[in-house]
Amino acid sequence: MPVLSKVRIYRQGDLILEQVEYEDVVKYAEPVSERLEVRSETGHSHILDAKVYRYFDQMLVAVEKPTPLVHPQHPAIVIEPGVYRVRFVRDWLLETSRPVD
Q: Can you point out the beta strands (E) in 9-93?
């Protein structure tokens, strides 16, 4: 039976960091920045001091040591070392509701 590896997933507001298993990807990715700074829907920024890379249409961060992800409206989260895909969740407000069959 194959062994499933655990991946870490962190969420802070509308920002999600999902660990990727292929850590060598940073060898082939384009370096973008030494700091992740993502503006949220509220206009405040999520900040993580980690190397940021672009790999095709994905944004990745490489965390080398336990590092806090901070945002003024959320408690800080300590991100463990690893390579993470940056994803987003957007909240949608519907003006009316309708029944679903």
A: 9-12, 15-19, 30-33, 36-39, 45-48, 51-55, 58-63, 67-71, 74-79, 82-88
- The reply to whether the predicted model has a pTM over 0.90 is no
Residue that is written with structure tokens 């999520």 in the block: 46
Q: Is residue 74 part of a domain?
A: yes
**Domain annotation covers residue 57:** yes
CA dihedral sign, ordered 7, 86, 80, 83: positive
Q: Which tokens sit at 65?
A: 């040591």
Residue whose entry in the numeric block shows the structure tokens 């957007």: 90
pLDDT of residue 44: 83
Confirm whether 95 is domain-assigned: no
**Model confidence pLDDT, tens digit, residues 28-41:** 899 999 999 988 77
